[in-house]
Automatic annotation (TrEMBL):
This is Serine-threonine/tyrosine-protein kinase catalytic domain-containing protein. It comes from Streblomastix strix. It holds the Pfam family PK_Tyr_Ser-Thr. Signal peptide: none annotated. It comes from the Eukaryota. Residues 112-157 form the Serine-threonine/tyrosine-protein kinase catalytic domain. Coiled coil: none annotated.
Length: 383
């Protein structure tokens, strides 16, 4: 199954937030007759339809949707009644006509409970994506949506695959070429309209973040692909500042936190990743600025210039010329959105000016924030 017992237990299935009041004409297709709890009864009475968790990320939407189905009718009908299986197949056919050939092929092989539930879960993933993004069946085709040969939306399937994976399982997923697949999705999304592209791009970020978080072997694999280049392009060129969210910035920041070999750090510096974060330093979102500051400082402090060396920072002039110094000071300290951002920027500037005098116009503010930062033991880099 694509969902764990722990995930089922975490779902709060008694909140109205999973539904919105709406008269719906699709009761005949969904067939929630003989519902076994009050929520599916509301569906069968044509009073409610799914709103998928108020527009949260796809993985949460999919998990909530699957949990709701499992809790309310999946075990009862999919284990005890073949009829419900065919109702689900009817829904998938309604929304995804291009999958008819697969459905026709797979039906005879759904002979065990586990196969039936697994197929139902994949179907629920498909419907979760459709509901969340209000995609009607006429818009679904292999040309404009990533549909795999088993009729699932690949991006939603990947999210669920990695969400609860162990460190070793994530490595296996990476070794199978997932980053190449994600690169292709990002490239494909560039050519799509915002309504379809933005959720896909955000989901790719979430997948990458989950995979590389504190997982050095996976990070090493990622650097052998174009995934960092494509994510950088996304923030640099595709998203406006107002569109940039925490997930976009934190995903890029993760590379600076866990890409710690000299070669990886040099790749990030040479590709101008620090300049990417100059854009996000101007965000109105506090956490975006904090992670941007951490990323810039991570890039500036790399193994090629060890902490105990006393010579000037080798890239000082370049940092000054490209606006890194002014951004850390103006956007981070003077206009900083939080104390954490100010302290991190002060630390970074102190390091860049390591063997030089701090500029008179900057020194009081930098020293002040360094003192505050020293008192706050929770402030750490690479985080």
């Amino acid at each position: 199954m694509a969902i764990t017992t722990a995930q089922q237990d975490e779902l709060i299935d008694t909140q109205e937030q999973y539904f919105r009041t709406q008269n719906t004409n699709n009761r005949g297709a969904i067939c929630f007759n003989n519902a076994i709890n009050e929520y599916t009864q509301k569906l069968s009475d044509r009073k409610f339809s799914l709103s998928i968790n108020g527009g949260q990320d796809i993985v949460s939407s999919a998990i909530n949707y699957i949990n709701l189905r499992l809790d309310s009718f999946l075990y009862k009908y999919f284990i005890q009644s073949d009829g419900c299986l065919y109702k689900l197949i009817g829904i998938i056919r309604l929304y995804c006509p291009t999958t008819n050939n697969f459905i026709t092929t797979i039906e005879p092989f759904l002979t065990t409970t586990s196969l039936i539930i697994d197929f139902a879960t994949r179907g629920a993933l498909t419907l979760a994506y459709l509901h969340k993004h209000k995609i009607v069946h006429g818009q679904i085709s292999t040309k404009n949506v990533f549909v795999t040969e088993d009729s699932t939306f690949r991006i939603a399937q990947i999210l669920v695959d990695v969400a609860d994976s162990s460190v070793d399982e994530k490595l296996i997923i990476a070794q199978r070429g997932i980053f190449y697949e994600l690169v292709n999705i990002l490239k494909w999304a560039k050519e799509q309209n915002k309504e379809l592209a933005r959720p896909l791009q955000e989901c790719v970020c979430q997948i990458v973040q989950t995979l590389i978080d504190e997982n050095k072997p996976v990070v090493d694999i990622s650097f052998q692909t174009e995934i960092l280049t494509e994510l950088k392009y996304l923030v640099d060129n595709t998203l406006s500042l107002d569109e940039i969210k925490f997930i976009h910035v934190d995903t890029l920041k993760q590379f600076t936190s866990f890409g710690t070999t000299y070669e990886q750090e040099k790749i990030m510096y040479d590709m101008g990743l620090a300049q990417t974060f100059l854009k996000t330093m101007k965000s109105q979102l506090c956490r975006v600025v904090e992670k941007s500051a951490v990323a810039i400082v991570n890039i500036m402090i790399y193994d090629g210039f060890e902490l105990n060396k006393q010579e000037p920072h080798p890239n000082f002039l370049e940092c000054d010329h490209k606006g890194i110094i002014s951004s850390l000071f103006q956007d981070g300290i003077i206009n900083g959105k939080s104390q954490l951002a100010k302290s991190i920027c002060a630390y970074g500037l102190d390091w860049i000016f390591k063997t030089m005098q701090l500029p008179n116009e900057m020194k009081p503010d930098i020293v002040k924030q360094l003192k505050v930062g020293m008192k706050n033991e929770s402030i750490t880099l690479r985080s």
